[in-house]
């Protein structure tokens, strides 16, 4: 079953990516989740959007405090409603309903759920009922959901903790913050901008390189590491064989995660060609 997921803004996108990972872990090959990051640069977005809607059977709209009135989100919601009707479309409220100042039309016509455990399970139940011809038995669905939910819960904590309404800063503070951010992005991403390759932080790229070159190396669990692995998973670059929240204190990398086809292609495109006779600079630590 094809699921169309609409988002607008970075927090909404992060929630959509995390939700996609949960649905893929729960339903495996039974669902294919499309989000608009899959539209390639230069591709005719209107044509692709129409084709994706035609091929989809269920719609999810990830709503936050800052995007509830976003024109693009409302446009996609209207297109989804026209294609599916209202029974197969679920607004997913990333923020508390009290923070969202009314659900604007056409969003108000749908039955929404909250991005918490109970609301997410209601969404999962709706999707399961739509899967034909073999939905999962309820007891198995509950068991699988209980196992994989903690990973999405951690992703949502980071999204929901990033409050968009911050205390007002002076013009000088804002300009300095913008300058430092732009300067950092310029220095860190110049090669990726030129090549058109997605940027990854150095540690996350290193995890992928380890999976490719040293898959059996031993890692030490940490909260930062778990967040990095969840991010790579949500981007579709790796898949985890078991919930990331169940990582032991020390673990072998390839026993828990593996590179997807997208991840293998990313490494192929992002790494410069090796020079004959040149060795790798430096040695990797045995524990990360």
Q: CATH superfamily name of the largest domain? A: Toll/interleukin-1 receptor homology (TIR) domain
H/E element order: EHEHEHEEHHHHEHEEEH
As a percent range, the share of strand residues is 5-15%
Helix and strand content put the structural class at alpha/beta
Write up this protein:
This protein has 288 residues and is an alpha/beta fold. It has 3 domains: 160 residues, Rossmann fold (3-Layer(aba) Sandwich), CATH 3.40.50.10140; 27 residues; 69 residues, Winged helix-like DNA-binding domain superfamily/Winged helix DNA-binding domain (Arc Repressor Mutant, subunit A), CATH 1.10.10.10. 49% of the residues lie in helices and 12% in strands. It contains 9 helices and 9 strands. It has a 5-stranded parallel β-sheet, with helices on both faces. A two-stranded antiparallel sheet has the order 6-8. The chain has a two-stranded antiparallel sheet with strand order 7-9. The protein is globular. The two termini are 38 Å apart.
